[in-house]
Q: What sequence folds into this?
């Protein structure tokens, strides 16, 4: 068992690519910490630095309290499983599982018992005398995992171990990984780009984008109380509604979120009112999950949006409606780049991101711009695809659609579920951690 502490760990690849930007993070003893983020955000790089397979450019790594930047991989007591857990093709499953113990010159009786015990836990005891070539993908990944943990490392690192498996196998193995690493009590860092995998597996999730840590917390904390618009959007199973609004406080009587055609009133008694009022006169971004909106009859009171039902979409377990509410939608803002504003490896300079966001806001907020929008930017495709246009509000209807296409629909807004962000995508009211 082991703790892992990253203190401002940075990786710049030769050539100047900034892959990991001052990550500070701690994995507790026995914890299953999931590192989540889109492809290319630096997850594997971080994991490889922890394993000692990649040099740390700056910052400090501590394993079990000991400074480990310079420690050789074999001295770290770490086991790693990759997406394609490569096995020894000419050894049987038994031979693959026992190999690490044989290298360590373990007692053969102990090896035999341990291999059998582990193969039962991984449900591959029937395959012990077969060679990897005769196994299914799921079975091969089980063997790869078994081989990694057979020596009972103090730290277990897994890099997208399920991403090459089909959906059914993924779910099955996901549950087994969860119970196995918890039963062993080994500190585990598990990398994935799949938000469902992260939410279902993790004790805590650390979510990153473009090499920068965005948020860390339990699955419930980061889903319900995300630190940034990026996190909120990345964790939404349906596309998150992100709408531009202007904050107004008429005669200081209440707070109004002004969406142009619609206004939503927030009372001063709302716990977020003070933080929001600091943005009076400015634009903010309001995030609304499709399930925070509920159809209500015409004439009903309370905060709501209304518009024509442009499309209905059947998803099997639920219907989604696309409501034309005439409100400008904004794409999920990219997180702010590093504090010192240096260029990251994709060539996105700090002011490039901010500049793009400003251009989006200028285009979307009537009268709010300087009339100098770059014509090329008018052709920037709207977020999402298919049915989702800029002005559509996505509403979750459940298993029975209450509307037909072309109907006039009205939806109540659950104020407590509104997520409020600055135009840079940071939460206006600080998340509770
Ligand atoms: N050896 C390398 N040299 C240069 N750039 C690399 C190298 N390995 C990865 N990268 C780049 O670093 C970024 C992060 O990569 P990676 O850590 O593999 O991301 P992830 O695992 O999240 O998909 C990517 O842009 C990738 O192209
Ligand atoms: Mg990777």
A:
């Amino acid at each position: 068992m082991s703790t892992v502490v990253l203190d401002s760990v940075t990786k710049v690849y030769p050539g100047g690519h900034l892959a990991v930007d001052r990550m500070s993070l701690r994995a507790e003893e026995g914890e299953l910490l999931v590192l989540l983020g889109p492809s290319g955000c630096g997850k594997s790089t971080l994991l490889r630095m922890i394993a000692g397979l990649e040099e740390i450019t700056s910052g400090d790594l501590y394993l079990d309290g000991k400074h480990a930047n310079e420690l050789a991989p074999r001295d770290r007591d770490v086991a790693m499983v990759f997406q394609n857990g490569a096995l020894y093709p000419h050894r049987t499953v038994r031979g693959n599982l026992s190999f690490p113990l044989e290298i360590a010159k373990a007692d053969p009786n102990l090896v035999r018992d341990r291999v059998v015990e582990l193969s039962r836990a991984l449900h591959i005891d029937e395959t012990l005398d077969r060679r990897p070539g005769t196994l299914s993908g799921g079975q091969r990944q089980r063997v790869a995992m078994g081989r990694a943990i057979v020596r009972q490392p103090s730290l277990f690192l897994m890099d997208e171990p399920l991403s090459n498996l089909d959906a059914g196998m993924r779910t099955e193995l996901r549950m087994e990984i969860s119970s196995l690493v918890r039963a062993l009590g080994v500190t585990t860092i598990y990398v994935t780009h799949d938000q469902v995998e992260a939410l279902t597996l993790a004790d805590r999730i650390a979510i990153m984008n473009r090499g920068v840590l965005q948020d860390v917390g339990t699955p419930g904390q980061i889903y319900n109380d995300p630190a940034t618009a990026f996190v909120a959007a990345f964790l939404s199973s349906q596309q998150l509604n992100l709408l531009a609004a202007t904050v107004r406080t008429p005669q200081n009587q209440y707070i109004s979120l002004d969406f142009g055609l619609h206004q939503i009133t927030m009372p001063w008694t709302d716990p977020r009112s003070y933080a929001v009022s600091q943005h009076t006169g400015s634009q903010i971004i309001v995030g609304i999950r499709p399930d925070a909106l509920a159809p209500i009859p015409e004439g009903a009171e309370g905060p709501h949006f209304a518009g024509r039902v442009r499309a209905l979409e059947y998803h099997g377990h639920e219907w989604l409606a696309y409501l034309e509410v005439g409100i400008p939608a904004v794409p999920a803002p990219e997180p702010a780049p590093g504090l010192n504003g240096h260029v990251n490896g994709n060539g996105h300079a700090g002011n490039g991101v901010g500049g793009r966001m400003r251009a989006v806001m200028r285009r979307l907020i009537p009268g709010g711009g300087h009339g100098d929008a770059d014509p090329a930017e008018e052709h920037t495709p709207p977020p999402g695809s298919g049915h989702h246009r800029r002005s559509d509000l996505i509403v979750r209807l459940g298993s029975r659609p209450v509307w037909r296409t072309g109907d006039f629909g009205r939806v109540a807004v659950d104020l407590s579920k509104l997520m409020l962000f600055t135009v840079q995508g940071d939460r206006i009211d600080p998340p509770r951690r």
User: Anything to note?
Assistant: Residues 233-421 form one domain. The two ends are 25 Å apart (CA to CA). Residues 13, 17, 19, 37, 39-45, 345 surround adenosine-5'-diphosphate (ligand 1) (CB under 6 Å). The CA atoms of residues 275 and 429 lie 6 Å apart.
